[in-house]
Amino acid sequence: MTGGARSPSSAPAARLIEELRRAGIADERVLAAMARVPRDQFVPAAFVDHAWDNVALPIGHGQTISQPLVVALMTAALEVTDRHKVLEIGTGSGYQTAVLAPLCRRVFTIERHQALLHEANKRFAALRLGNVTSRFGDGTKGWPEPAPFDRILVTAAAAKLPVTLQELLAPGGVMVAPVGAEKGKQMLVRVRRTDEGFKTEDLVAVRFVPLVEGLPRNPRRPVEAAST
Ligand code: SAH
């Protein structure tokens, strides 16, 4: 990653990374990526003092930027390498996308709130994330054109495992997704596409905003798919 990123040695970033390490995150590539992504640029101005705290924060439209520990867990669980083409469902602030970008070949990310996507695109441009392609739309339908994907990360909780999305995985591909009701218990689930079919494992209990089918009512006129 180039330009705009804080030095990993900035004190609040270093404190957060230490906290993640203590919480059991051992993947150094993930920790290095998170140290470099300036989370303070992904939160609303009112919350900037808490940008480096290990908490989820509101980003408007009833949505949140995920807790750093959860971002770290999900990114590590995805086992992503620089050869991988990744699909993310739920761009939100763009923070998770920015953590993935330096760890993989290309990230495709979809968001159903146009205003959030617009802000996220500005951040991707400011940080010169050249391997991010974003789109406004309903992620539950996937993104068939660039499929198959080596990795799929869903950052909003579906009531049931989103099987439409797992069909977009390449052989050997991995999908990580929170599954469960909005107010009920949710589990982070990892799905592997093997020669024998899909293998599913439960990872850790989580709490996410819901994956919502369709687009918000009265959306503004759709914008062209943006590519940075
Ligand atoms: N990855 C984000 C997390 C945002 S919260 C971040 O790091 O900030 C989850 C996001 O998923 C919200 O922005 C929400 O609007 C979006 N979302 C929910 N259902 C969706 C759907 N069907 N298609 C695309 N995005 C969806």
Automatic annotation (TrEMBL):
Coiled coil (UniProt feature): none
EC id: 2.1.1.77
Active site: S66
Top EC category: transferase
GO cellular component, one term: cytoplasm
Location of the protein in the cell: Cytoplasm
Transmembrane segments: none
Function: Catalyzes the methyl esterification of L-isoaspartyl residues in peptides and proteins that result from spontaneous decomposition of normal L-aspartyl and L-asparaginyl residues. It plays a role in the repair and/or degradation of damaged proteins.
The protein, known as: Protein-L-isoaspartate O-methyltransferase
Species: Aliidongia dinghuensis
Lineage: Bacteria, Pseudomonadati, Pseudomonadota, Alphaproteobacteria, Rhodospirillales
Gene name of this polypeptide: pcm
